[in-house]
Amino acid sequence: MKNLIKLLLVVLVAFLFTSCADVSPHAETCVTSDPYGFWGGLWHGIIVVISWIGSLFSNDIAIYAYDNNGGWYDFGFVLGIGALGVSGGRASTSK
């Protein structure tokens, strides 16, 4: 029962965070600004789960920035996703 309550709380928090992720007023700034680099890729990798959930409900949310500088963005993105995998693996074996 406690696990179900925790799961519902996580889902509720995820919906609350994704409800604020409107990017339409900032679309012009993204096109005219500098492309995302390593740090942007790292951040997008860390929040990929929240972005993915948001992308299921809105076409304005993407999990990967199309305006990026290539290799460094990809490297940061993969490291960000890897950080989620490492922390999840440690949590499952810490009983």
Structural overview:
- This protein has 95 residues and is mainly α.
- It has a domain at 33-95.
- It has five helices and no strands.
- The chain has helices at 2-18, 27-32, 38-46, 48-57, 71-92.
- α1 crosses α4 and α3 (38-46) packs parallel to α5.
- The longest helix has 22 residues, at 71-92.
- The chain is flat, with a radius of gyration of 15 Å.
- The two termini are 19 Å apart.
Mind sketching the topology for me?
Layout: H1 2-18, H2 27-32, H3 38-46, H4 48-57, H5 71-92
Number of strands: 0
The largest sheet, given as strand count, sense and whether it forms a barrel, is: none
Helix percentage range: 55-70%
User: Residue-averaged pLDDT, rounded?
Assistant: 76
Number of helices: 5
Shape: flat
Question: What is the H-and-E element order?
Answer: HHHHH
Give the end-to-end Cα distance, rounded to a whole number of Å.
Answer: 19 Å
Radius of gyration: 15 Å
Oligomeric grouping of the chains: single chain
Low-confidence stretches: none
User: Structural class, judged by helices and strands?
Assistant: mainly alpha
Q: State which percent range the strand residues make up.
A: under 5%
Properties at a glance:
95 residues, 5 helices
